[in-house]
Design goal:
The complex is a heterodimer. By secondary structure, chain A is mostly helical. Chain A has helices at residues 2-29, 33-57, 63-87, 93-112, 114-140, 148-165, 185-200, 207-226, 230-247, 252-271, 273-283, 294-306, 329-362, 366-390, 408-435; strands at 167-169, 172-178, 181-183. Chain A has a domain at 145-266. In chain A, strand 1 and strand 2 form a beta hairpin. Chain B is an alpha+beta fold. Helices cover 40% and strands 19% of the residues of chain B. Chain B has 17 helices and 21 strands. A 6-stranded mixed beta sheet of chain B has the order 4-3-2-8-16-17, with no helix packed on it. Chain B has a 5-stranded antiparallel beta sheet with strand order 10-9-21-20-19, with helices on both faces. In chain B, helix 8 runs antiparallel to helix 17 (482-499), helix 11 packs across helix 13 (302-323) and helix 13 (302-323) crosses helix 14. The N and C termini of chain B lie far apart (80 Å). Classes of the chains: A mainly alpha, B alpha+beta. The interface between A and B is large, with 68 and 50 residues.
Chain lengths: 436, 501
C-alpha cells in the first residue's frame, strides 16, 4: 500500500513544489499579493505531506517523523510571525524559500536514515535560533573599516586552532572535536571572511593595497591546502574573486588573481595525488567505474534512474551512493523526486541568489553591500560547485548543499548567513529612522 | 524624483512608507561625486554577477534535461548500475520480439516466481543480453530495462499495485530478423568473429552475430567461468570490439583521394615501399606495375595507397576519418566503442595508417556503416536494433524512426566508389563474395595483428549494387586473408539477407 501512495504522491509533490516555486517567482517579480500568501501555505502543506508519508512507511507508524514534521511546520509559522513583529514587514520570501529547502532536505535525510534526519532536525532548531541571534548581534555590532584587524585575527586564530587541534575525518583535517560533537570551523570562518574582505575592499584599490589583500588571501588558502580542504579553498577563492570584481574598476586585479588561481590549480594537480585522482575520475568516469569514480558513477546512475518525476520517496535506491547524505544528496533528490524536482530546487536557489544580489545592490553602506554580495555568493557558489560536481560537470569537491545536506556546522553557518543578510536588508530602514 | 530602476520589489512597500529612502536614485541626482560614481559602478558589477549566477543555474537545468533525454539510457545500462539487479517480485518483464513478431525472450509466472526464458539463447546472446538478479543485465535487456520493467499504462499499474497483481512490462520489437540471425551465427561456427547486416537506407540492424557467445539463461550458474574465460564470450564484439581495419580502411582513403581529385594519378607499384628504411610490402610482395585508383582498390595495392596517403598527408586523412565518424561517438541503442584514428605526423605512421594498419581501430558495426554509407549515396544512417515498443495488447507506444548521422561524402563520390567496389568483387580480391544473379559491391581486408598470429579477415560490402538493400561487415579473428575467409561467408549471408523483407 505504501508503494502505491508514494508512487502517486510523486505527482502531487511535483505539482506542489512547482506551485511553490512559481508563486515565489511571481511574488518577487510581479509583486503578486496572492502568491505571497500562497507560498507559505504550500510550503506548510508540503512539510505536512512529506512527513506524513514518511511516517506511514514504517511499520508500525513512525511517530518521530510526525514530530519532526509538526515541529518544523510549527517552527516555520512561529518564526515567520516573530520575524514579522521584529522587522515590521510581511515579506519573507527568502525565509519561505529557505524553509522549503530545509523541509525537502529534512524529509530526504529522514528517508535516507532516520538517525541523521533526527539529528538534522535538532540542528535546524539550533539554526533557527542562531538566525535570530545573528539578527540581534548584527544590530549591536556595526562592522567598520577599523575592525579589519579584529576580523583577520579571528580568522587566523580559528585556522591555527584547526591546524593544531584539528582531527581528520574523510581525508580532510578540518574538524575540531568538542567532546559532545564535531565542529567544522571553516564553515564559520567563511562568514568572518566575507566581512573581513568587505572591510579590506572598502577603501579604494591600489597596487599596494591589493598586494596586502592578496597576501592575506594566500595565507588562508595555504592553511586550507595544509588541511586538505580543497572544497573550502575553492569556495573562499571564488567568493574573493567575485567581491574583488565589484570593486576593481579596470579589472586588472581580478584578472591577476584569477590567473594565479589557474596556476595554483595546475600546480596542485601535479603536487597532490588525491587531486589528480579526482580530475582523472572526472575526465573519464567510466574507465575507473569500479574504484576512483565509483561514487560519481553511482550518482549518475541515480540521476539517470529518476527520470522526469522520479521513483517516489523510498522507492529508489539512492543509498547505493557513498556519502549520499552529505555531498551527494542532490542525486538522491533527483532519483526520488525526478529531474523536475532537481530543477525546481535549482530554481529556488536561483531566486535566493537574485534576492541576495538585490539586497547587495540596494544597500548604501559600502561594507554591508559588499558583505551581502559575499554572503549570497557563499551560498550560491557552494550550491553550484556541489551540483556541478554530482553531475560530473566539474571534478567532485566535497562541500555541502546549503540547507539540505546533513551537517550541523554547515546548517548553523547557513542560518547565521541568512540572519546577516536579513539584517543588511533591513538596516537601512532603522538607520534613516534614527536620523529622522 | 523616484528612479524606479533602483526600486527593489521585495521591499517596495517599505519604500512607500518612507519615501525619502531612495538610496542611489536621489544621490545620483543631487550629488555627482566620484564616490557616488563608484557606488553606481559597483551596482552594475553586482548586476553582472547576478545574471552570471542566474544563467549558470539555467544552464545546469538545461543540462539536467539533456542528460535525462539523451544520456540517461546509455548510462543506466552500465553493468555497474546495481539498480539493474534489483527487481521487484511483482513484475513480469516484457517480451522481446524479432522484426516479424516472433518471440525471442519472455518471462513467465510460476509458483516459485517469475522466470525468463530465451527461446534462441545462443543466437541472440549479445544483442539481447542477459537479465539476472545477481549479476545485473546487459545488451538490450539493460538498455531498455526501464520499458521492460514498467507498464506504460498508468491506471493499470496503479490498479495492479493496489491489488497486488502482477504488472506486465512493455515489449520491445527488434529490427533483427530471427532467421537471418540464426543463419549468420551458424556461418561463424567454430570461429571467433562477427557478422553485421544492416539496411543502408534506414540503419536498421538485421543481424548481429558475435562469436564466441554464451547462454543467457545459464548466466546464474556459469558466471564465474564466463568472466574468467580468456576468449571473453561476454563481449559484444560487433559493437564493442575494436580491431585494426586493414585494407577496408582504404575506402576512407579512396574517398579522400576522390575529393582531392587525385584519382587519375598513376603510381608505379614495385611490390614494396621504403619509408626511411621501414619497408612495407604488398601482399606476397607482388608488384602491380603502373596503376590508378580504380585498379589499385581492385587489387588492394598497398604501395599505391601508401604513396597517395603520404601525398594527402595526415591532416587530410584525419579529417576524412572524422567525417566517417572515427574518434566520434555513434548514437545507437546499445553500448558501442568509439573507433580510433590517431593523429600522427611522421611519415612512417602516416604510411601505415593509409593502409589501415598502425594504431587505427574500428568496430565491425562501424565498418558495416561505412559500407552502408557508400550504398546510401554517401549518407550514413544511425544504426538501431529496436524498432518499437508495444504494450501487452500489441499496440505501439513508441516507434523509433531512422535518423541520419550525416553526409559522409557527396552522391557523386559515392557513385564512383560503388563502381570501384563492384569491380573488387567482380574481378579483384573479393571474387568469393559473389552472389548468383546479384551484383555485389565490396572490399576485402587482411589486417595484420603483429606477432606470429594470423591476420584478421575482413569483408565489407553491400548488394544489390544498383539498388542496395543490405550492407554487411564480416570479421573473422585470425582468419587469414579477407578474400578467402570472410568473403565466402559474406556471400552466403548476403544471399540469405536479400530474401528477407
Amino acid at each position: 500500500m505504501y508503494e502505491v501512495l508514494s508512487w502517486s504522491y510523486r505527482f502531487l509533490y511535483t505539482f506542489i513544489t512547482a506551485g511553490f516555486t512559481l508563486s515565489c517567482y511571481l511574488s518577487y517579480y510581479k509583486n503578486n499579493r496572492i502568491c505571497r500568501y500562497l507560498a507559505p501555505f504550500l510550503n506548510t502543506a508540503l512539510i505536512a505531506m512529506n512527513f506524513a508519508l514518511l511516517s506511514y512507511y514504517f511499520e508500525p507508524m513512525d511517530y518521530i517523523a510526525i514530530y519532526i514534521g509538526g515541529g518544523l511546520a510549527f517552527a516555520y509559522i512561529i518564526s515567520r510571525l516573530v520575524l514579522g513583529k521584529l522587522l515590521k514587514s510581511d515579506k519573507h520570501l527568502m525565509f519561505d524559500m529557505v524553509f522549503n529547502l530545509l523541509s525537502i532536505g529534512l524529509s530526504i535525510l529522514y528517508r535516507l536514515s532516520p538517525e541523521y534526519g533526527t539529528r538534522q532536525a535538532y540542528f535546524s532548531a539550533v539554526g533557527i535560533l542562531a538566525f535570530f541571534a545573528a539578527l540581534v548581534f548584527m544590530k549591536r555590532f556595526e562592522v567598520q573599516y577599523k575592525h579589519r584587524f579584529l576580523l583577520g585575527g579571528a580568522i587566523l586564530t580559528l585556522l591555527l586552532i584547526t591546524q593544531i587541534w584539528g582531527t581528520e575525518i574523510n581525508g580532510s583535517k578540518n574538524w575540531i572535536n568538542l567532546y559532545f560533537t564535531n565542529v567544522q570551523p571553516s564553515e564559520f570562518i567563511k562568514l568572518i571572511f566575507v566581512f573581513f574582505m568587505a572591510c579590506l575592499l572598502d577603501k579604494e584599490l591600489n597596487t599596494w593595497r591589493f598586494i596586502r589583500i592578496a597576501a592575506s588571501m594566500l595565507v588562508i588558502i595555504v592553511f586550507f591546502v595544509l588541511q586538505r580542504d580543497m572544497g573550502s579553498a575553492f569556495i573562499f577563492f571564488t567568493v574573493f574573486l567575485v567581491m574583488l570584481f565589484t570593486k576593481d574598476i579596470k579589472g586588472y586585479y581580478t584578472a591577476v588573481s584569477a590567473g594565479a588561481a589557474v596556476g595554483g590549480a595546475f600546480i596542485s594537480y601535479f603536487a597532490f595525488s588525491y587531486i589528480k585522482f579526482r580530475v582523472l575520475a572526472w575526465v573519464n568516469p567510466w574507465k575507473y567505474v569500479a574504484d576512483k569514480s565509483y561514487q560519481i558513477t553511482q550518482s549518475l546512475f541515480a540521476i539517470a534512474t529518476g527520470g522526469l518525476i522520479g521513483t517516489g520517496l523510498f522507492l529508489g535506491d539512492p543509498k547505493f551512493i557513498p556519502a549520499v547524505h552529505t555531498d551527494f544528496i542532490f542525486s538522491a533528490i533527483c532519483e526520488e523526486t525526478g529531474i523536475i524536482g532537481g530543477m525546481l530546487l535549482l530554481s529556488v536557489y536561483a531566486l535566493i541568489s537574485a534576492v541576495g544580489m538585490e539586497i547587495s545592490s540596494k544597500c548604501t553602506k559600502p561594507i554591508y553591500s559588499t558583505a551581502a554580495l559575499g554572503l549570497t555568493s557563499l551560498t550560491v557558489i557552494q550550491t553550484l560547485i556541489i551540483v556541478c560536481g554530482v553531475l560530473n560537470i566539474i571534478p567532485i569537491t566535497g562541500v555541502t548543499l546549503p540547507f539540505i545536506s546533513y551537517g550541523g556546522s554547515s546548517l548553523l553557518s547557513q542560518f547565521i548567513n541568512l540572519g546577516m543578510l536579513y539584517y543588511i536588508d533591513r538596516c537601512e530602514i532603522r538607520d534613516t529612522k534614527y536620523e529622522e | 524624483m523616484r528612479d524606479t530602476r533602483y526600486e527593489i520589489r521585495g521591499i517596495s512597500q517599505s519604500f512607500e512608507a518612507i519615501p525619502d529612502l531612495l538610496p542611489i536614485a536621489n544621490c545620483r541626482v543631487i550629488l555627482v561625486t566620484p564616490v557616488i560614481i563608484e557606488v553606481i559602478h559597483m551596482k552594475n558589477r553586482v548586476n553582472i554577477i547576478k545574471y552570471v549566477y542566474l544563467s549558470l543555474f539555467a544552464l545546469i537545468c538545461l543540462y539536467l534535461l539533456y542528460f535525462n533525454l539523451f544520456e540517461s539510457r546509455v548510462i543506466s545500462s552500465n553493468s555497474y548500475n546495481r539498480r539493474l539487479r534489483e527487481s521487484s517480485e511483482n513484475i513480469i518483464r516484457g517480451s522481446i520480439l524479432d522484426r516479424k513478431g516472433e518471440v525471442l525472450a519472455k518471462s513467465t509466472k510460476y509458483k516459485s516466481g517469475v522466470r525468463r526464458k530465451y527461446i534462441y539463447p545462443r543466437y541472440f546472446s549479445h544483442v539481447i543480453g542477459y537479465s539476472s538478479k545477481t549479476y545485473g543485465s546487459s545488451g538490450l535487456e539493460a538498455f531498455y530495462n526501464k520499458e521492460l520493467m514498467n507498464s506504460s499504462d498508468t491506471i493499470e499499474t496503479l490498479k495492479s499495485k493496489i491489488n497486488d497483481y502482477f504488472i506486465n512490462g512493455d515489449n520491445i520489437k527488434l529490427t533483427l530478423d530471427r532467421s537471418l540471425q540464426t543463419y549468420a551465427v551458424d556461418q561463424l561456427r567454430g570461429r571467433k568473429g562477427v557478422v553485421v547486416v544492416l539496411r543502408p537506407e534506414t540503419g536498421e540492424i538485421l543481424a548481429m552475430a558475435s562469436k564466441p557467445d554464451f547462454d543467457p539463461s545459464g548466466i546464474q550458474n556459469n558466471w564465474e567461468s564466463l568472466i574468467k574465460d580468456k576468449k571473453s564470450p561476454l563481449l559484444n564484439r560487433s559493437a564493442e570490439g575494436l580491431y585494426p581495419p586493414g585494407s577496408i580502411f582504404k575506402l576512407v582513403v579512396t574517398s579522400s583521394i576522390l575529393k582531392n581529385g587525385l584519382q587519375d594519378v598513376e603510381i608505379e607499384c614495385t611490390g614494396e615501399v621504403n619509408i626511411d628504411g621501414y619497408i612495407i610490402k604488398d601482399s606476397d610482395g607482388k608488384a602491380h606495375g603502373k596503376l590508378a585508383l580504380a585498379e589499385a582498390l581492385k587489387h588492394s595495392c598497398n604501395s599505391y595507397f601508401i604513396k597517395q596517403g603520404l601525398r594527402l598527408g595526415n591532416n587530410n586523412m584525419l579529417s576524412e576519418a572524422a567525417r566517417f565518424r572515427f574518434n566520434k561517438n555513434i548514437q545507437t541503442d546499445m553500448r558501442i566503442s568509439t573507433s580510433v584514428f590517431p593523429n600522427k605526423i611522421n611519415d612512417k605512421n602516416v604510411a601505415e595508417q593509409s593502409i589501415g594498419q598502425g594504431e587505427i581501430l574500428m568496430t565491425p558495426l562501424h565498418a558495416a556503416l561505412m559500407a552502408a554509407a557508400v550504398a546510401n549515396k554517401g549518407v550514413m544512417m544511425q544504426p538501431y536494433a529496436v524498432s518499437s515498443i508495444t504494450n501487452g495488447e500489441g499496440q505501439t507506444i513508441k516507434e523509433f524512426k531512422p535518423k541520419q548521422i550525416g553526409q559522409v561524402m557527396d552522391g557523386k563520390t559515392a557513385g564512383i566508389m560503388k563502381d570501384m567496389m563492384v569491380e573488387v568483387v567482380k574481378s579483384g580480391t573479393g571474387t568469393k563474395a559473389k552472389v548468383s544473379k546479384v551484383t555485389v559491391a565490396g572490399k576485402t581486408g587482411t589486417a595484420e595483428v603483429g606477432g606470429d598470429q594470423k591476420s584478421h579477415a575482413w569483408f565489407v560490402g553491400f548488394a544489390p549494387a544498383d539498388n542496395p538493400k543490405v550492407a554487411i561487415a564480416v570479421l573473422i579473428e585470425n582468419g587469414g586473408s579477407g578474400g578467402s575467409t570472410a568473403a565466402p561467408i559474406a556471400s552466403r549471408v548476403l544471399k540469405k539477407a536479400l530474401s528477407i523483407k
